[in-house]
Amino acid sequence: MKRILFVDDESNILDGIRRMLYADRIRWDMQFAIGGEAALRACEAGRFDVVISDMRMPGMDGATLLGHIRDLYPSTARLILSGYADANLTTRAVAVAYRVLSKPCDGPELQATIERVCTLQDLFCTPGIRRIIGSIGELPSLSRTYTALALAVHEPAASMASVAGIIEQDIAMSAKVLQIVNSGFFGLAQKVTSLQSAVAFLGMDTIQNLALASDAFRVFVPDPRIPKTFCETMQQRARRVALIVRTLPLDKTVRDVTVMAALLHDVGMLVLASKMPDEFCAALSLMQEHGCGQVEAEEQLLGISHAEIGAYLLGLWGINSLAVEAIAHHHHPTRIPHSGFDISAALYVASLLAREIDAHANDLQGREISKSDLACLETLGLLQQFPAFRECALESLNEDANSATQENGTNSLL
Ligand SMILES: [Fe+2]
User: Distance from the CA of 355 to the center of ligand 1, in angstroms?
Assistant: First the structure.
């Protein structure tokens, strides 16, 4: 049974949550603490899987409490409930909380968020992923530029100039970030030529994630046995998925994060190709022999796929938690409850469309939409809309191909 701790300085709010989630007591062991100090005492008495805290509390506020919990119990998932008036405080909470929920939060939203957090936690605790992460050994660290950037964006005094200044010192990263910003994924009306403008247009978080995308493809170098075209094909596919994401009816507030998730969604393949080349080559052979997809081959050989491996790694590197979740489930989106057409559903649809269009264009048998994909779309309530999504995706990919031909440029963005 998952252990969940709710923290607030007002007992009547905690009573409200207790009543709201009354039916969930059979699946969750829910505890309630009044204030930060009481919450830390409760954690000392027994480890919690999830802690959900109010932001504004006298004495120890929510961000401080979750910071202590992160340091003392790193595997505990941390959520924060924050009111509209707490905008400044929330900036601090983002650094320590897995997710920020706005107050008042209704029962179904709270239930779905806890459920999603617990699913991801379980996924990352499976023996399969532990074995693979163990056999990968030490993960490569990200560049000094990215590390400095990640620290700088959480500084209260961070300015656009200081963030841009850090990236500017790394010529390769600067070039890649500007290339991606101007690639059309973000729908900017004019060409961005300076990093400071890029930060101004897209915000510090997105710029940080773009820097991470650039780094991820630098630190994992595929084994010499892997076909030379692998990296290029993978990056082209990531780019196509990101272009398709742009055409989906996503809320503006989550579109940039979804584009990021699309650019990084198959990074787990790169991890396998560089750190577990024997298994990676075995999966490629299995695909050829049985005509199955990469995920099926990986799951058959390893028990898990590149989706969970990539998400786990990106989670360790601190990428946006919604993107981590979407990447973890991009081949099995029905593992989690969905709230409308969210990031996870969008990434699944975009990667499915890219695969289908690719299979059609290259006459690849067995890579078309499967019965299980159709069932998945039906469960997500997206089966009817899928043909319209396909039409928009094709239009966008054709436009992109035409402009690439005109410019005679390359497609490799990462
Ligand atoms: Fe994938």
Answer: 10
> How far does the centroid of ligand 1 lie from the alpha carbon of residue 265, in Å?
6
- 237 contacts 358 by C-beta, under 8 angstroms: yes
φ, ψ (nearest 5 deg) of residue 164: -60, -35
Å from CA of 269 to ligand 1 middle: 8
Q: How far apart are CA 353 and CA 387, in angstroms?
A: 10
Query: Longest C-alpha distance within the chain, in Å?
Result: 66
Strand partners, 80: 53, 100
Task: Pull the structure tokens for residue 245.
Answer: 């994401």
Burial of residue 273 (number of CB atoms within 10 Å: 0-12, 13-18, 19+): buried
- Which sign does the torsion angle of CA 80, 84, 90, 91 carry? positive
Ligand 1 centroid to residue 262 C-alpha, Å: 10
CB 376 within 8 A of CB 348: yes
pLDDT, averaged across the chain: 85
Residue type, 151: L
C-alpha 99/C-alpha 65 separation (Å) is: 15
How far, in Å, from the CA of 30 to the mean position of ligand 1? 35
Please, are residues 209 and 262 in contact by the beta-carbon 8 Å criterion? no
Residue ranges with CB less than 5 Å from ion ligand 1: 266
Ligand 1 center to 147 CA (angstroms): 27
Angle at 220 between CA 209 and CA 349, to 5 degrees: 55
Asked if residues 258 and 250 have their Cβ atoms less than 8 Å apart, the reply is yes
341 alpha carbon – ligand 1 mean position (Å): 19
Using alpha carbons only, how large is the chain's radius of gyration in Å?
22
Burial class (CB in 10 A: 0-12, 13-18, 19+), 135: exposed
- What's the first-to-final CA gap in the chain, in angstroms? 42
Give 133 Cα–ligand 1 centroid separation in angstroms. Answer: 18
| pLDDT tens digits, one per residue of 52-106 | 999 889 999 998 999 999 889 888 888 888 875 566 666 677 667 877 787 778 8
The pLDDT of residue 204 is: 82
- What does the alpha-carbon distance between residue 118 and residue 67 come to, in Å, rounded to a whole number? 20
Q: Tell me the C-alpha distance between 322 and 315, whole Å.
A: 10
Ligand 1 centroid vs 330 CA: distance in angstroms? 6
